[in-house]
Amino acid sequence: MNKQDLSLKYVIITPPREECVYTSCYCEENIWKLCEYIKAQHQHCIEDVYAVFISNERRTVPLWKQKSCHGDQPVVWDYHVILLHNWNSGESYIYDLDTVLPFPCPLSLYEKEAFRSDNYLKESYRRKLRVIPAEMFLSSFASDRSHMKDEVGHWKMPPPSYPCIETAESKMNLDDFISMDAQVGWGQVYSLSEFMEHFGGEEWPTLTNQQPKS
User: Fold this and answer.
1) How much is the CA Rg of the chain, to the nearest whole Å?
2) CA 170 to each of CA 67, 128, 148, 153: distance values in angstroms, whole numbers, following the listed order
3) Quick check: 104 and 11 in contact, CB under 8 A?
4) By C-alpha distance, which of 190, 197, 47 is closest to 111?
5) What is the spatial order of strands in the sheet that 49-55 belongs to?
6) Residue 70: left (phi > 0), alpha (psi -120 to 50), or beta?
7) pLDDT in tens, 186-202
8) What one-character DSSP code corresponds to residue 156?
């Protein structure tokens, strides 16, 4: 049986997209809630699930095929968070609640359409990825949502309706997850090519050499 045959038997590990807990511009909490759901169901191996923070030192990371994209232009996030299911029986899958791509999306397709390539990007736009095991993410992540308030304390975007996520040790450590300094925080930091080599194993031709608009 080849890889394509195996991928047809993939079982989705989350609710349908429209039934997932989702708050616009709170991607880190959306993915935390997906991890929480997967662990609570006891139907899938949580050890194969990871939260993936995408950012870089300048916090300027382009992604294509996002809901907020205009045409074939990427959106440039300060950071974005997706869920990776490193499926041992076949191809890995990405769960991204902000993409127009399938949910879930085969990693090879997500690379081709959403990541594309760093080869033709300015260094300031090149993506890094912090990959954190789901259980570690659930036990260590905390956010008081202060990053979503302006200088006078008004919300930039409405917050989730549920209480802030916190741990016994912290009420706010989001910056340690966004940071791509491998010496701080949780999980492991990869370049995009290292990430694909570790979790993907397929190479795709570059689709564009178009730079993101500044």
Assistant:
1) 17
2) 32, 25, 18, 21
3) no
4) 197
5) 105-106, 93-95, 80-85, 49-55, 128-133, 188-191
6) beta
7) 999 999 999 999 998 54
8) S
Please say if 27 is a catalytic residue. yes
- Burial class for 163, CB neighbours closer than 10 Å (0-12, 13-18, 19+): exposed
For the chain, the average pLDDT equals 90
Two structure tokens written together for 18 = 């429209």
Q: Is there a catalytic annotation at residue 175? A: no
Q: What is the pLDDT of residues 16-52, one digit of tens each?
A: 999 999 999 999 999 999 999 999 998 889 999 999 9
Residue 199 near residue 93, CB atoms below 8 Å: no
Query: What is the distance between the alpha carbons of residues 94 and 172, in angstroms, rounded to a whole number?
Result: 26
Residue tagged active-site, from 27, 85, 98, 105: 27
Can you tell me the distance from the alpha carbon of 52 to that of 169, in angstroms, rounded to the nearest whole number? 22
Q: Which pair of structure tokens corresponds to residue 29?
A: 């909490």
pTM (two decimals): 0.89
DSSP bridge partners of 129: 54, 190
**List 96, 98, 105, 118, catalytic entry:** 96
96 is catalytic: yes
Annotated catalytic residue: which of 80, 85, 98, 105? 80
